Amino acid sequence: MRRSGDAWEIAVIEPQKEPSGSKTSAKKSSKIVLALPKGLVDEGEKAEQTALREVFEETGITASTITKLADIKYVYVRSWGDQQKVFKIVSFYLLRYVSGEIGDIAPEMRIEVNSALWVPLEDAPRKLAYRGERDVVRRAQEYLKNHPEVLA
Question: Is the CB of residue 57 less than 8 Å from the CB of residue 109?
Answer without folding.
Answer: yes
